[in-house]
Amino acid sequence: MSSEVRQRIVAGAADMIRRRGLNATSVRDLAVHAGAPLGSTYHYFPGGKQQLAEEAVRFTGKRVHKVLERELAAGPVAGLHAFLKLWREVVVSNDFRAGCPALAVTVEELPEGEEVPGALAAAAEVFRDWAALLAGAFAEHGVERHRADRLATVIIAAIEGTVALCRAQRSVRPLDDVAAELELLVEAALG
């Protein structure tokens, strides 16, 4: 039971952060959203909001990792399509009010002189993980490793940026445009 409550709080935090950002979300908001007592939140996350945000970003990273890993088994184009479909579902199913928690924590203002918050470090790990999966698939299909790494970075940067554009414009058109160009780019790289 306790692990279910903890997991529900983490999933709820990921959802709140992808909607509001980290700075606009309090621990109390996270507890209410997850349907958990405030005391439970502090019990499971003694590091407070930063610990919870870090775990929420990693939670999202793992979920996307599983989708990418499964779909990349069918090849880089299938993986790209799955990645695009996943983010399309996020923005459309939430009426353009939600994006990626990993991106959300990266655009928050950092306090002067403080070390890098755990959530930001987790976002960097998540983006590196997704890039490694994509680059590995490209390399397996004959793309030179250095180019495979760059291509993976372009895909992640393009999609994350496009999710922000979709939210701002309240339209999937930016995602459709980027998807078409990324597909051409990937097909050209695969030869």
How would you portray this structure in words?
With 191 residues, this protein is mainly α. The chain is 78% helix and 0% strand. It has helices at residues 2-20, 27-34, 38-44, 48-72, 76-93, 101-106, 118-140, 145-169, 173-190. Helix 1 crosses helix 2. The chain is elongated and about 55 Å long. 38% of the residues are buried.
Write the layout of secondary structure elements.
Blueprint: H1 2-20, H2 27-34, H3 38-44, H4 48-72, H5 76-93, H6 101-106, H7 118-140, H8 145-169, H9 173-190
Short précis:
This protein is mostly helical and 191 residues long. The chain is 78% helix and 0% strand. Helix 2 crosses helix 3 and helix 5 (76-93) packs parallel to helix 8 (145-169).
Our count of helices gives 9
Helix/strand/pairing category: mainly alpha
SSE topology string: HHHHHHHHH
Please report which band the strand proportion falls in: under 5%, 5-15%, 15-25%, 25-35%, 35-45% or over 45%: under 5%
What helical percentage do the residues reach?
over 70%
Strand tally: 0
The CATH topology label is Tetracycline Repressor, domain 2
CATH arch. level architecture: Orthogonal Bundle
* CATH classification class: Mainly Alpha
The total tally of domains equals 1
Largest sheet: none
Overall shape: elongated
Distance between the termini: 51 Å
Measured on Cα atoms, how large is the radius of gyration? 17 Å
Poorly predicted spans: none
Query: What would you give as the CATH superfamily?
Result: Tetracycline Repressor, domain 2
Overall pLDDT level: 92
